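[job 4417] fold queue: 2 targets
>>> target A
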Amino acid sequence: MAGRPFNYLATSLLSLLLIPQLAAAGREFSTPSRMVIVSSGVLYWITPAKEVKTSLKPLETLGSEEWCTPEHMQSRYLESKLLDLFFVRALTERLQTVIPVSAVAVCPGFCYSQLRRFWYEETFSFAKIVLAIQERLLAWTPEQGSRQLIFAAVDGRDNEENMKGEFISRARPVEVSDFVLSDEGHEMQDHVWNETINILNGISDKIAPIVRDCLVAPVSSMN
């Protein structure tokens, strides 16, 4: 598995393993549990290369030596956030209607925090100076960013169907990128899902029963 997008795979693994517990909580309290996965608005900036989006195994392609060069790795963060959204939308299409669980993706916004503290400890560059200025002038505080996560978790409870599979930004569901909505985007989404399940089946023997008991083959794609 060397070179594969662990950031995305770890999120997917944990999310699938949580489904039985979330479903049990939803039944106990007679309200759907909601899974919130942090994505980012940077997914609007990325359209995967042809070799990636047409591959039957996009994760394997991205993890190959050819696609792990410094040049390609510059877009890996953007690609990981696109993969997170793909996961949320693919999961939404497959969750059984009797399973009281929904999933959304959320963008917390551009926030200033200690997340990049080690980056600034290295040699300064013009790009780092520009980013530092942007953080001071434009970035939200971590508390402001956290409001987006809270909104994604608790808002819209009066109409859960309208929240399922949505991308939340600035405290409201927003339309995703043209690529995600396109036929080729949905095809890549399905390929990523199938590959993800195959990989995770090799990591945990709990994945196959969860897929069998909680998910179904998608009937139609999301709009």
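>>> target B
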Amino acid sequence: MTMKTVVAAVVCLFASASAFAPSQQSLPSTAVKAVADLEGMVGVGPETGNAIFDPVGLSNWAPADFLRKAELSNGRSAMLAVVGWEVPKVFMFDSSDVGSPDPIKAIMDADPQWWAQFLLLCGMFEAVKYRGELNGKSYTGEGPAVLDWTKTWDTLSEADKQTMRVKELKNGRLAMIAFASFVSNYFIPGSVPLLPEGF
């Protein structure tokens, strides 16, 4: 190996290493506003490094309160999906159109009319949430509840409400990860090391 080859290799290593150095640019004004919007939001904990978890920078493109509403809605849906993934393996209703405990096969076996009814139901829930927000209510726990069937939300102390908000948010996050793991393991067996094949 010649001296020129060694020098060229060292220069290339330093040049490629500089690509990973942090940039010295200042934050744009939208990013500064986004950081300010994220301060004080519920959900910071050891699982997020005791900081707001926004690795993709979505808060630069959408309001933080909109993103939190989306996170809660998706978390609630994921919690139901995880239950729906497991319950048919233990208990099945007699049904003429869906007879498989396999969740993906059951989705494909369902009658299109069922899907139309399901989409209509989801739309009605969204309409109720929207109407409640127009009336000053909240479905994120930040005010009077849009839906409170048990009439217990208003009886809780502020500390208990805060505890419930954190529990719901973190359980929703875990359910989203779990559901993504179930689907990944279903279509790519062995892709989730702790899940058995066919889970």
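[job 4417] complete. Note on B: The CA atoms of residues 34 and 59 lie 6 Å apart.
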